[in-house]
Each structure stands twice: as structure tokens, then as C-alpha cells.
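Contributing new records

If you add data, match the layout below exactly. Sequence lines come first and carry their own label; structure lines follow with theirs. Keep one chain per record. Anything else will be rejected by the validation script.
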Amino acid sequence: MLVPDGLYKWISTQNHNLPLIALLTFGMPKMLVRGIYEGNSGKSLWGGKKACVTLSFDCDFPEDAEDMPSVIRMLERYKVKASFAAVGHWVEKYPNEYAMVKEYGHELMNHTYSHPDNEILNPGRKFRYISAAEKLEEIERCHEVCRRMFGVEMTGLRIPHFKHLFSDDIYPLLKQTGYVYSSSTWLTNTTSRGLPFMGPENIVEFPLATCPLHPFTVFDTWHSLNATRLSHRIMHRGPEAYLELFEELIAIGKRTGSYINIYMDPLDVKKIPGFERMLELLSDPELIVTTYEDYLAGGLPIVGARGA
């Protein structure tokens, strides 16, 4: 059932409304997620393909870097290209692992230099609440590390963490840096029905998919496998449930002609025996599977763009 535009717009303003979030999460989570994506049905957005998917990885910890080679080799077997959100400090500590991202044709995206609030590198300093000058330094320092070490000129950013740590003040900083995109918000915090859209300062925003059982939570491996919050644990738990929900999102994307934007943590891949099954699904010739950079280079749809 389609979620009407007016209702969807209102829902996107309610991410602090805990009673409403609880009502929708425990009452009709899948219906809400499907109903939002249903707004893309009949638009024929993908040149004859049924849907478009981006797979990305957030590399926040040393264990992520250590597991990247095995993840990249599996991606190579299935010819799937992905985007890797890189923390500059770990790039310096694990140069060989991060060099593989470029070597195998994947995308590096900026995830700041020290990932403020990372319990190892920068504990207790949330990105949203540091000064604009500090935010800019975090972005520019990570960019310079990847340029110096690999000759890569990154073009986009994912802020550390999501939810209430996201704010629009990041966009002027991205414009100042010369970046063209962000992937830092989520389906139910936006009104584009999951499609990339033109945000402030002409920065393209790629909203992430939310969990079909937690429609106000980004669909990621952390909340599926590692979260301690009771609401996450009682709705679904474990790698089998994660794989089922991944399959459901891909099926929703194909049925509604949508863009499905999913991120994982590399350190969690080894916990998911079905990861290669996920890559098989992404190898479907009816799908476009693309990085953020390649999405933009390919002229794929952007809501609110001139001529769109």
C-alpha cells in the first residue's frame, strides 16, 4: 500500500517522536517501508533494469581494515563494485589493505580522519557537536591522506554515525571541500522515497535504506548482529535474519523500481555465512549495482536535479 506524499513528508519530520516510532515499529514496520518505496513504481528509472543498488562498507576499526582483503576478494569473484568509507587514521595504519580498494576498482569515500566518538581514536566527541572548523579539518585531513597515499581524489563523505548526529550544516563544508555527494541520512528522514536527491549547496544526498523491521533505523550489520537495544534484539537477531531482510529489501527494490542503498561493516562479514548469497543476488542482470561516484558519472536519476 502506497504511503501518500503528505503522510510520508510528515513521517520524515518525526524521527524524535519515540511513541510514534514505537507504534510504527511494532505495528506495521514492513508495510511502512514497502509503502514508501512504492512511490517509485511505474517510473522506469533504470533504463530497462528493475532496480539500482549501492553496497558500501564503513571501516571504523582496525578489525575492519584487517578483514577488508577477504571482503574485496569475495566482491571480485562476483564482479560487484562497492564504496568503502575510509577513516584517515586507519588508512595510514593499514596502507596495504586500503590500497586494495583502488587496485580492485572500488570507491574510497571520506569518513573523516578520526571518526569523532570512535572509542579508540576520538572518544566522547560527537561529530555533530564539534565546531565547523574541526569538522572541516576532519574532512580535509582524511582527503589529504588518501590523495597522498593513493592518488585518489575522493568526491563524497559519510558522516560518523547517523540518526540524531546528522544535520544539514555538513553541506556548506562539503561544498567548500569541492565534494559533490554525501551518504549520511536515511529513508525515513527524507522525502525522496529512497532516491538520491539534490540537497543543500547542490550536494547530492544518497539516503540509506532502513531496516524493514526497524523503519527508523539504518539497515546495517551493527544493529542486526551487535546492538544491545532491546527493540533491536526482539524484532530480529542474527545472520540468518539479516540475510532474509537483505533479500526482502532487494525484492522490494525490484518490485517498486527503487534505489536500495545498503552499508555493512567489514568486520561483520565473517559472521554472515550467507554473504556470498548476498553477492549472488547483486549479480542479478536485472539490477544496476554501482558505487556513488559511478552513479553520478552515469547520469542516473537525482530527485530535484535540473532537468530531472
